[in-house]
C-alpha cells in the first residue's frame, strides 16, 4: 500500500502543479483593437512580471454572455472591461463582484464617477463626430450638419444601437446637450429621436466594432461617422486625415469589473489595483487618446498628448456626460425598440 501511495505521488504533484499554474492565469476581456493594444503595453505585459499570466480576450460588451456564465456557475472570465450603463445594470443584477477600494487605491484620486460599487474606471473616452478632411470641402460643425444630406451628400456611419445614436438624433433636432436625457426620458422625446433617425435611415451605414468607423471614413464609404475618439487618434497616427468635432460628443468611462464567481477574485483585485496606478495609466494614454481616471496621471502626461484627450478643458466643455442611471432604467426597452426599428 505504501508503494502504491509513493507511485501515485508524482501524479498528485503534477496535478497540483497544473492547478497552481491554472490558478495563476488571469483572463482579462476587453473590446479589442487599438484599445487592447494599449492595454497590453500599459497593463497586461507589466503585470505578468508580478508572476501572474494574463490571458487576453475580446468581446463586444454582450452582457448576455456574462449572465449565462453567472447563472450556470460556469465562470471562465475574471476581469472584464464594461461600459458604465451596463456596469450599473449588471451590478444591480448580481453579475459583478463588489470592489474593495481598500485593495485598489484612494477613491479621492479618481475622476468623479470613475469609482462605483462594482467597477473602477480604466479611462475616459468620447463618442464623437469624425470626418475625413480629404473628402469634405467644408468641415461639419455638429450633429445638425451630420443630418444635412443636401449640404453633405453621402453615407453616414452610426453605431448599431440605441445608446449614443438616440442622443445624437435629438441634438441634431435642436435639443441642447444639457437637456438630452430629460427629453429622452419621455415617450414624446423617444418618438422624436426615432422620427429624426427615420430622416437619415436611407443614408446610414451601421457599425458594430470600434475599428470600423475609421476604416469606413478612410475608404470613402461614409463622409462622416460617429466614432470613438481613441480609434480616430490611432488612424491619425497612421497618416489618415481624419478630424474630430468635439462639440456634442458624449463622454463616458470604461471600467474594470470582476465577474461574479470568478475563481481568481484575489488576483483580479490585484490586477485592477495595478492598472489603476498613475504611472501605468500614463503609458495607456500615450498609446491611445483616452483620458486617465487616476487624476495623478495628468501630472505625468505631456501637453502634446493631453491636447488630444477628451478630458482636456477645450475638448470636454461642450460635451455631455452619459447618464448612467438613464441607461440603467431605460436601456433594455430602448435597445429592443431600436433593434425592431433597424430591422424594418
From TrEMBL:
> Record's CDD domains?
PBP2_polyamine_RpCGA009
Write the record's keywords in alphabetical order, separated by commas. Answer: Signal
Natural source organism: Chitinimonas taiwanensis DSM 18899
Tell me the domain of life. Bacteria
Question: Which protein is depicted?
Answer: Putative spermidine/putrescine transport system substrate-binding protein
The residue range of the signal peptide is 1-23
Amino acid at each position: 500500500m505504501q508503494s502504491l501511495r509513493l507511485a501515485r505521488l508524482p501524479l498528485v504533484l503534477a496535478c497540483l502543479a497544473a492547478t497552481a499554474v491554472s490558478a495563476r492565469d488571469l483572463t482579462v476581456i476587453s473590446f479589442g483593437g487599438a484599445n487592447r493594444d494599449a492595454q497590453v503595453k500599459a497593463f497586461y505585459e507589466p503585470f505578468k512580471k508580478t508572476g501572474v499570466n494574463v490571458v487576453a480576450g475580446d468581446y463586444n460588451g454582450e452582457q448576455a454572455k456574462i449572465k449565462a456564465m453567472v447563472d450556470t456557475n460556469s465562470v471562465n472570465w475574471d476581469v472584464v472591461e464594461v461600459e458604465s450603463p451596463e456596469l450599473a445594470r449588471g451590478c444591480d443584477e448580481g453579475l459583478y463582484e463588489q470592489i474593495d477600494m481598500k485593495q485598489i487605491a484612494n477613491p479621492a484620486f479618481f475622476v468623479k464617477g470613475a469609482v462605483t460599487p462594482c467597477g473602477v474606471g480604466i479611462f475616459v473616452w468620447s463618442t464623437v463626430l469624425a470626418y475625413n478632411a480629404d473628402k469634405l470641402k467644408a468641415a461639419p460643425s455638429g450633429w445638425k450638419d451630420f443630418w444635412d444630406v443636401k449640404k453633405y451628400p453621402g453615407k453616414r456611419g452610426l453605431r448599431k444601437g440605441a445608446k449614443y445614436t438616440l442622443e445624437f438624433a435629438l441634438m441634431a433636432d435642436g435639443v441642447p446637450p444639457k437637456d438630452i436625457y430629460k427629453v429622452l426620458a419621455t415617450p414624446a422625446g423617444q418618438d422624436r429621436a426615432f422620427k429624426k433617425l427615420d430622416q437619415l435611415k436611407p443614408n446610414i451605414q451601421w457599425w458594430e466594432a470600434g475599428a470600423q468607423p475609421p476604416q469606413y471614413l478612410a475608404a470613402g464609404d461614409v463622409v462622416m461617422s460617429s466614432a470613438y475618439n481613441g480609434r480616430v487618434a490611432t488612424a491619425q497616427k497612421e497618416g489618415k486625415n481624419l478630424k474630430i468635432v468635439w462639440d456634442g460628443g458624449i463622454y463616458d468611462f470604461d471600467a474594470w469589473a470582476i465577474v461574479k464567481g470568478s475563481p481568481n477574485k484575489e488576483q483580479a483585485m490585484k490586477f485592477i489595483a495595478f492598472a489603476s496606478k498613475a504611472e501605468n495609466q500614463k503609458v495607456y494614454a500615450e498609446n491611445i487618446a483616452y483620458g486617465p481616471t487616476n487624476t495623478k496621471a495628468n501630472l505625468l502626461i505631456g501637453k502634446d498628448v493631453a491636447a488630444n484627450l477628451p478630458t482636456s478643458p477645450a475638448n470636454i466643455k461642450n460635451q455631455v456626460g452619459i447618464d448612467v442611471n438613464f441607461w440603467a432604467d431605460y436601456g433594455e426597452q430602448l435597445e429592443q425598440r431600436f433593434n425592431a426599428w433597424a430591422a424594418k
